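thought: fold this chain, then report.
action: predict
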Amino acid sequence: MPSFDIVSEVDMQEVQNAIAQASKEILTRFDFRDAKAEILLEKLEIKLAAIDAYKLKFLEEIVLGKLARRNVSLKNIERKDPDISPVGHARQLLKIKQGMETEDAKKVIAKIKETGMKVQTQIQDGQVRVTGKDKDILQEVIATLRGIEFTISLNFTNFRS
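observation:
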């Protein structure tokens, strides 16, 4: 029986490329000359630091803009509140969400069941597997899900016939 998986993942190579582009941009921008701005990527976290909250806000906009241009869904970027020290130095953490939470998977399954299509769904390790008798039905499920707005980005992988 044909099947496919619904996942919510971010291409980390694209994230690294976006961070590299943002770092180059802040080195060349005049307004960031003495801002002591830095961007660090550590596993699933992007750490931003600047001399004050004003520069940090612009640094965040640059990073998010570069991520968006590289087709990294901003739905999978969780922004934490900035930490501002008494001296004025500001830091912020952007977390990258990989995988699908059980609650989000249940919402996806509920939307599939609302369509009334004859497919089976099951949650497996942060992904939803959809199985059906015909690949045309599976393609209809994909088209339907693409038309619905979720709080996370959905990727469709492992299409097997």
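thought: worth noting. Residues 3-8+100-160 form a domain with the Alpha-Beta Plaits fold (CATH 3.30.70.860).
final: tokens above.
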